[in-house]
Write a structure and sequence with these properties.
9 helices, alpha+beta, 26% strand, 12 strands
C-alpha cells in the first residue's frame, strides 16, 4: 500500500508542484515579507477520542498543530480559519462553545485572529479542519531542504512524552488534575500540546538553523523528511536523545527509548546548525548530517535508522 508520504511525493512529481514539501507553503506577500500557509485535519477516533479529552483541550490542540507548522518555518502566526463538521448530538450540548473557548485561549496568547471557516453537520464523527497563516522575513523561511553535510542535528525539549501520554490514555489513565504530576504531565503533552514559536523565532532571527521541521510524526520519520528533502544522510547518537524523564515512571527503559525515537506529536523542533555557528543553540545536539544514509549509533555501532513514526496508511 502507498503511504501518505509516497502519495504526496507522487502528486508533487506528477503535477510539478514546487511549493509543497515543507511544513507550510511559502508564498510571496510583499517586498519585505513572505506568507506562510498550513492546513491540518483532526478526525474523531483517528486523531482524538472524545472520551479521552475535553472540548477545551481539543480546541487548543486544533490550533496548536497549525501553529507548530508555522514555528517549523521560523514564522510568526497572524490568522487562522477553522472549519468543523459536528454530529447533531454534540451540537445540542455546550461542546462547541467550550471547544472555541480552548481555541481562542491559545489564539489570544499568540495574537492569532480568526478570519473565517465553516460549520457543517457531520453524520457521525467530529471533524476539525484548521488553516493558519503567518509571516516570515522575505526569503528567510527555514526549509527542510537546506541541511548540509557536516551540520549538527539539534532538538528542542524532551522526546516521547506525547506518545507516552497516548499509551496511558489507551490504558485507561484519563486526565485529572489530582493525578501525580508525572502522569498528568504526560497526558497533557498528548491532549494539550504546545508549539515552540518563541524558540523558532530565535532560530530564525539569529540565523541559527540551516533546516528545520516540527516533530509531529516522530523523530525517526521527521529526520527522514529533512534528509530526503536535503538529499543528505544523518547519524543520531542514541545516548544523546533527551528522553522525557516522566516516561520512566510508567515504562521500561527500552520502551522509553522507542517512544522518544519513534513517538509522534511532541511538536518540538528538529533542526540543523552549521558547525561554525559561534553562539549558543537552544536545544540538545543529538547527531550530525552525513552523506552515508540515516543511522543511529548505539554502543559505538552504527545501524540503519528506519522511519517508524506514525503513518495514516501502512
Amino acid at each position: 500500500m502507498v503511504s501518505e508520504f509516497q502519495f504526496v511525493e507522487n502528486l508533487r512529481t506528477k503535477y510539478g508542484l514546487d511549493k509543497i514539501g515543507d511544513d507550510c507553503a511559502v508564498l510571496p506577500k510583499d517586498a519585505e515579507t513572505d506568507m506562510l500557509l498550513t492546513a491540518d485535519m483532526l478526525i474523531e477516533d483517528i486523531d482524538f477520542r472524545l472520551e479521552w479529552t475535553t472540548p477545551e483541550f481539543l480546541g487548543h490542540k486544533a490550533l496548536a498543530v497549525s501553529l507548530s507548522d508555522i514555528a517549523a518555518m521560523g514564522g510568526v502566526p497572524k490568522w487562522a480559519m477553522l472549519s468543523i463538521g459536528i454530529p447533531e448530538s454534540l451540537w445540542a450540548t455546550d461542546f462547541v462553545d467550550k471547544f472555541y473557548e480552548g481555541w481562542f485561549a491559545l489564539a489570544y496568547e499568540f495574537g492569532v485572529e480568526l478570519v473565517g471557516g465553516d460549520v457543517s453537520r457531520s453524520p457521525e464523527k467530529l471533524i476539525v479542519n484548521s488553516i493558519a497563516g503567518g509571516e516570515v522575513a522575505k526569503g528567510k523561511a527555514i526549509l527542510r531542504s537546506t541541511a548540509k553535510v557536516g551540520d549538527l542535528v539539534f532538538v528542542t525539549g524532551t522526546l516521547g512524552g506525547a506518545a507516552g501520554g497516548l499509551k496511558l490514555l489507551e490504558r485507561g489513565f484519563l486526565y485529572t488534575s489530582e493525578r501525580h504530576e508525572y502522569t498528568s504531565g504526560l497526558i497533557l503533552k498528548q491532549l494539550k500540546p504546545h508549539s515552540q514559536l518563541n524558540i523558532a523565532k530565535q532560530l530564525q532571527t539569529e540565523s541559527i538553523s540551516t533546516s528545520m521541521i516540527d516533530l509531529s510524526d516522530g523523530l525517526s520519520s521527521d529526520l527522514n523528511h529533512i534528509c530526503c528533502e536535503s538529499k543528505v544522510g544523518a547519524q543520531v547518537y542514541a545516548d544523546r536523545l533527551p528522553i522525557q524523564p516522566d516516561l520512566a515512571h510508567h515504562f521500561p527503559a527500552d520502551e522509553c527509548f522507542d517512544l522518544a525515537l519513534n513517538g509522534g506529536e511532541d511538536f518540538e523542533l528538529l533542526f540543523t546548525v552549521s558547525p561554525k555557528h559561534p553562539g549558543d543553540v537552544p536545544g540538545t545536539c543529538i547527531g550530525e548530517i552525513t552523506n552515508n544514509g540515516i543511522e543511529i549509533v548505539e554502543n559505538g555501532i552504527a545501524l540503519p535508522l528506519e522511519a517508524k513514526g506514525y503513518e495514516h496508511f501502512e
